[in-house]
Amino acid sequence: MEDDQRDEYLSFLKRRREEILRRVEGACERSGRDVSDVQLVAVSKTVGVDEVELAWQAGWRAFGENRPQELKRKLEGLAPRGEAADARFDMIGNLQVNKINQVLGNVRLIHSVSSMHLAEAISKRAEVRETVADVLVEVNVSGEESKSGLSPEEAHASFGQLLALPGISVRGLMTMAPRGDAARARSTFAGLRELRDELRADLGCELEVLSCGMSDDFTIAIEEGSTLVRLGRCVFDPGYALD
């Protein structure tokens, strides 16, 4: 990226971040929450190393990737780039069992443990590496066939087993809402919060992280209790119009 392009893009990233933060603050005010309770992850899976470095300069500190090979490219590319080398990366999206070793130790949080099988596989590999992986359990609250994750009923039935697995620490829950339907998005996010509250009451677990909300619906998610939102297009795409 040429110097003038970098300057122009950095200026855009700063302006857009300010707009996003204003919307986060508004959603927190409407729902009686403290803005410090909400963490923002910039989903960097569609951009390059230069864009991530500039996003760091604009104030972003946590990024999300969904492909281990792209995660590796970003980590290696940022390593010689000063403070940006300290960027936090999370693994979002479906994680294949045969890619687990590429992720362990390289991400702060795995967002999408969508089955007991995957949880057990992460547990076994983490034990071999003598580490503990922080994970979120993905729940298909909306019931859409196109979405992965445990059903709420499956989550209730298997959560005790998930919590007991060695090598992983279940930090919370994650879900994705139907696109283009604000009412269904709101009910999906509310359903995740309610499930978290039920599991807390039943099992005594904290589950402090609720990961839900993306570019099109993050303010709704925050109003319904999300503590972590994943923002891609609205962060990196100058052509994306915030409502």
Explain what this protein looks like in three dimensions.
The relative contact order is 0.14. The chain is of the alpha/beta class and about 240 residues long. Helices cover about 45% and strands about 15% of the residues. It is built from nine helices and eight strands. The chain is globular. The two termini are about 30 Å apart. It has an eight-stranded parallel sheet. It has one domain (about 5-235): Alanine racemase (TIM Barrel, Alpha-Beta Barrel), CATH 3.20.20. Helix 1 (about 5-30) packs across helix 2 (about 50-60) and helix 6 crosses helix 7 (about 180-205).
Helix content: 40-55%
Number of strands: 8
Straight-line distance between termini: 29 Å
Helix and strand run: HEHEHEHEHEHEHEHEH
**How many DSSP helices?**
9
CATH architecture: Alpha-Beta Barrel
**What structural category characterises the helix and strand content?**
alpha/beta
Radius of gyration: 18 Å
What is the typical, i.e. mean, pLDDT? 96
Please describe the topology of this protein.
Layout: H1 3-31, E1 39-43, H2 49-58, E2 62-65, H3 68-78, E3 88-91, H4 100-103, E4 109-113, H5 116-128, E5 133-138, H6 152-164, E6 168-174, H7 182-203, E7 209-211, H8 218-223, E8 228-231, H9 233-236
Parallel strand pairs: 1-2, 1-8, 2-3, 3-4, 4-5, 5-6, 6-7
Helix pairs in contact: 1-2, 6-7
Task: Summarize the entry for a quick read.
With 243 residues, the protein is an alpha/beta fold.
